[in-house]
Amino acid sequence: MTEFPQTRLSLIAQVQSPEDREAWDQFVLIYRPVIYRMARRRGMQDADAQDLVQSVFMRVASSIQRWEKKDPETKFRHWLRRIARNTIFSALSRRPQDTAAGGSEILNLLAGQPENEKLDEQELETETMREQYLHAAAVVKSDVDPDTWRAFELTVVRGQSCELVATQLGKSVGSIYAARSRVMRRLREQVTCLQENSQ
After folding, report:
1. Do 148 and 120 have their domain in common?
2. Of 91, 149, 120, 81, which is closest to residue 1 (Cα–Cα)?
3. pLDDT, tens digit (0-9, with 9 covering 90-100), for 120-142
4. Which of 84, 78, 190, 102 is closest to 142 using CA atoms?
5. What is the distance between the alpha carbons of residues 16 and 190, in angstroms, rounded to a whole number?
6. At a CB cut-off of 8 Å and minimum separation 6, what does 83 contact?
7. Are 84 and 49 a contacting pair, CB within 8 Å?
8. Which of 10, 30, 97, 175 is deepest in the core (most CB within 10 A)?
9. Are the CB atoms for 15 and 64 separated by under 8 Å?
10. Residue 134 falls within a domain, yes or no?
């Protein structure tokens, strides 16, 4: 599921000014992968998905000045998700129909089904967490010793035993446990920081 990250109100205020290039670069960095994956999951080819991302950003740029947080329940990401979903739907509905025999009835049936908001929301939430992890991992990886990161990667990501990794890296089993624990703690801290900064 693709979830849009919660966006800092300060970033929203900054991107409401088209001249703030730095804010727009940050905004695009956060949302490009999420929108792209939403499009790809709905069957769009790479080039079409890339074009769609640009279309979403153009729509956001043309209407973001009208967005405002009216109450605590008002979420920018819901507004952005709606724009992305509508843009994807419009793009898919403009694509030529498959001309194979017998294909039109099922397409008509699917087109008549209501969009499942809950599934969209879950998709967006999962993608947000994925983006936060990838960003946190890049930060932590650049901050720790390569052997420390390798110990974490081999034991946590690849599921190898600490004993096997200790032998591979020429380290003690205790140092592998310590490295894994240190990286996991740093990742949690980094993700928490990202989440707090995106409220």
Report:
1. no
2. 120
3. 666 666 776 777 788 888 889 99
4. 190
5. 27
6. 56, 59, 60, 63
7. no
8. 30
9. yes
10. no
Q: Which position has the token pair 């990794």?
A: 165
Answering whether pTM is above 0.70, one says: no
Q: Is residue 51's pLDDT more than 70?
A: yes
- Side-chain half-sphere CA neighbours of 194 within 13 A: 21
What is the number of structural domains in the chain? 2
Residues of 149-167 as b/e, b for ≥16 C-beta within 10 angstroms? bbbbbbbeeeeeebeebbe
| 79 falls within a domain | yes
Q: Which domain holds residue 92?
A: 1-124
Task: Of 84, 35, 42, give the one whose Cα is nearest residue 63.
Answer: 84
- What are the residue ranges of helices labelled H in the chain? 9-15, 21-41, 46-63, 76-94, 104-111, 117-143, 146-152, 162-169, 173-197
**Sequence-separated contacts (24+) of 165-174 with Cβ below 8 Å:** 171/147
Q: What percentage of the chain reaches a pLDDT higher than 90?
A: 24
- Give the C-alpha separation, 36 to 176, whole Å: 37
